[in-house]
Structure formats: C-alpha cells, structure tokens
Write a structure and sequence with these properties.
The protein has about 130 residues and is mostly helical. Helix content is about 70%, strand content about 0%. It contains four helices and no strands. Helix 2 packs antiparallel against helix 3 and helix 2 runs antiparallel to helix 4.
Length: about 130
C-alpha cells in the first residue's frame, strides 16, 4: 500500500485543490506534430507505404487471377470457348501487371527528364516550401 502511495505522489503534481493528476509524457515523439522536413518525411512514408501496399495487392490479385484462369483451363475439358476465356483471363492479368510496372518506370523516366524526383515526393514538397 505504501508503494502505491509513493508512486502516486511521484507522478502527480497537486498544487491546486481541483486535483491535478499530473502530466502525461508521450513515450516517444512518433506522434508529435511535425512541420517542414519532418512533415514531408511523414507524408513520404505514408505515400510510400500506400503505393507499396497497392503494388503488393495488385501482385496478389495477379496471382489469384492466374490461378483461377489455370483452374478454368484445366476444367475446360477440351471446350474451345472455355479454353479461350481462360487464356484471355491470363493475358489480361499479365497485361495489368505489366502496366503497373510500366507506370513506375515511366514515372521515374519522366521525373529524371524534368529534374523532379516523382518517386520521392518528400523532397518535392520541401522544394515547394517557402
């Protein structure tokens, strides 16, 4: 009981009769408001994680589409229409994946031609700041 009382006295600062319960100190500055370079870095991390997550989801979707199309092809039992539909599904999935990868490559090429790092938006934001 005395241990709890001493901990309570060490963590509170009661200087008013209203019962101040002390101050809260965050365990880290990860959630502290940021400005300037810190805000750009935070935005960059959020955007990077979002684009990376989108790319992973697109890759998983491609694999799922490929597996479903392969299963449909095996289950076609020689029906030319079902085989063509499965082949078209595989082709469309592959085209989608190629487009996704091409967008990253085109963004990098255009950014280097313009002198802007489009794949690293944090530095772009810092250059725009007054």
């Amino acid at each position: 009981m005395n241990v709890l009382k001493s901990i309570a006295q060490a963590t509170t600062t009661t200087s008013t009769p209203s019962g101040n319960l002390g101050t809260f100190t965050a365990p880290s500055s990860a959630f502290a408001p940021t400005t300037g370079a810190g805000a750009a870095s935070t935005f960059e991390r959020i955007l990077s994680v979002a684009l990376g997550g989108f790319t992973i989801v697109a890759g998983i979707y491609f694999l799922f589409t490929l597996l479903v199309a392969a299963y449909n092809w095996m289950g076609a039992a020689g029906d030319a229409g079902k085989v063509k539909k499965a082949r078209d599904t595989m082709t469309n999935g592959l085209i989608g994946l190629v487009i996704l990868v091409a967008v990253y490559a085109i963004a990098g090429i255009i950014g280097s031609m313009l002198g802007i790092d489009l794949l690293n938006p944090g530095t772009l934001l810092l250059e725009l700041a007054p």
